[in-house]
Amino acid sequence: MTLSTADLMPLVDWSRAQFAMTAMYHWIFVPLTLGLGFLCAIMETFYYRTGNEFWKRTTRFWMRLFGINFAIGVATGLILEFEFGTNWSNYSYFVGDIFGAPLAIEGITAFFLEATFFAVMFFGWDRVSKGFHLTATWMVAFGASLSALWILVANAWMQYPVGMTFNIETARNEMTSFWDVLFSPVAINKFFHTVLSGYVLSAVFVAGISAWFLLRRREEELARKSIGIASVFGLVCSLLLATSGDRSGVEVARHQPMKLAAMEALYDGSREAGLTVFGVLRPEAERAGGKGNYYFSFEVPGLLSRIGYRDPQAYVAGINDLVKGNPEQGILSAAEKMERGRTAIGELARYRQARKAGDERTAAEVAALFDTGTPQGREFLQEYFRYFGYGYLVSPEDIVPNVGLVFYSFRVMVGLGFFFILLFAVNLWLWKRGRLERYRWWLRIMLWSIPLAYLAGMAGWVVAEVGRQPWTIQDLLPTVASVTRLNTSAVIVTFFLFAVLFAVMLVAGAMIMRKQIRLGPDESTGSVFPRLSRKRREKDGEAPAGSTEEKRD
To answer: Which of 89, 204, 463, 519 lies at 20 to 30 Å from 528 by C-alpha?
Structure first.
């Protein structure tokens, strides 16, 4: 593959920008879907066990918001998946056999599970038994998380490629072990950490909207009990989220040391490396002049070594170690990896030329280098092909991501994570003592915590995705070699078209959600879609036109 980097970079940048915009817009809706489905299922379980119509009415209110969010999330997810083929066709060809498998399973299992029970969940009230309806609600909730599982497995494989082998005949990576892909430690931790963050956001959302009702002295019983359920659910998930985040730090240290170094703005590696709780980074020019990394900072000594390697004495590689190499620690320089990557690319080109010329002897010789069944193949794959992607890089410094963006995003994510633990704990303390309404300033904090929950989720994805740049697949394929060779102007046009479309959808979705929240539970029918319900009952002669219900709609 011949690259003209100067000409290609604008295309790569615009393609990355378009994909990032689509992914971040999609993530506005996904986390609320993940957790709100379970909260609805929990509330409906109370209705099933008690028969109290209050819980049925409460469930339907939150289910209405779930449905609006779910519909927009599905639409944005379809756009996101199509972009793999339109903008990243080289990537899709190179690893489509592996990446496509979990996405296909997601469509076959999770999507159909949700689709099967979605109609029952929303339109089956009073049409099916209470037990079957409750089962449908739980199935939709589980289906949303199951859908997330397969997508996150695919994403985790890009961060830690396992369970595959390279087919020299097709120049593609092919799956050899589905179970290695599914149960890799990176995939397991990524799934739990991501879905738990969605559960926390949902709990913050329910508590915040309930606080809004209390501030306006509306639906006070619904608000108080919703805050109680959301706070228990949110506190448990927040504590589990902190645990999964700690474990994720171990996997990042093992498999993506540059990401770890960028998260800490650690330029020079050391033993007993400390973790910077907060700090303000100096610009590169000042650091190059011999000044420190920070204008000011607060550091916990040895904590980074302990988190990353479970050993406070462990050596943590810095950015300079990874770029320039550190023989004492067994770290190859980026330049050496680039040479080895180019050797692997050269051998692949030599194989193609030999096959084209009918030189079977040379072809067999090269093929043996890519064969895990031969000694020379195992050595070549371990020492050279594992750095295949480095062969496309121009400069050793290309392996360094945007340090400032990753550094600050990580602290926003972690800081807000601890804030949410405090938020839910205080909520429960006030709720158990019946004092929620007395502290209106705290109710406002709960309400304004909703955008903070979305900010925390976005910051987490920035750390995960920007932190692994320049790689589409860690060490195997950089973004510069993944992109479809489109006309840059075409990508620019579609970028702005998507930007307008997403802005319209976001405003429309927000207005619909706002209207339904202000409307509150539909007291007459408890309908998930009150306007449709009113029109149907008018047709049947059960509700007169121009009634109070119509005016309220």
So the answer is: 204
The token pair that represents 400 in the structure block:
């360094």
* Predicted confidence (pLDDT) per residue in 514-533, tens digit: 999 998 886 434 444 444 44
Are 30 and 148 spatial neighbours (Cβ–Cβ below 8 Å)?
yes
Cα–Cα distances (Å) from 360 to 167, 350, 378, 385, in that order, read: 17, 12, 21, 22
Residue 258's H or E segment, with its range, is helix 257-264
Comparing CA positions, the residue from 166, 214, 83 lying closest to residue 491 is 83
Nearest to 297 by CA among 318, 276, 267, 274: 276
Which CATH architecture is the domain 15-254+405-483 placed in?
A: Up-down Bundle (1.20)
Contact 524, 49 (CB under 8 A): no
Where do runs of H (alpha helix) occur along 106-184? 112-123, 130-159, 178-182
Average pLDDT, integer, range 501-505: 89
What phi and psi values does residue 276 have, to the nearest 5 degrees?
-80, 115
- Report the DSSP beta bridge partners of residue 300: 275
What are 280's strand-pairing partners? 296
What is the CA angle 459-462-468, rounded to 5?
145
Would you kindly state where each structural domain of the chain is located, as residue ranges? Answer: 15-254+405-483
The pLDDT tens digits for 134-181 are 999 999 999 889 989 998 999 999 999 999 999 998 889 999 999 999
Amino acid at residue number 65: L
DSSP 331: B
Per-position b or e across 396-419, b if 16+ CB within 10 A of its CB: bebbbbebebbbbbbbbbbebbeb
Q: What is the pLDDT of residue 530?
A: 47
CB 111 within 8 A of CB 63: no
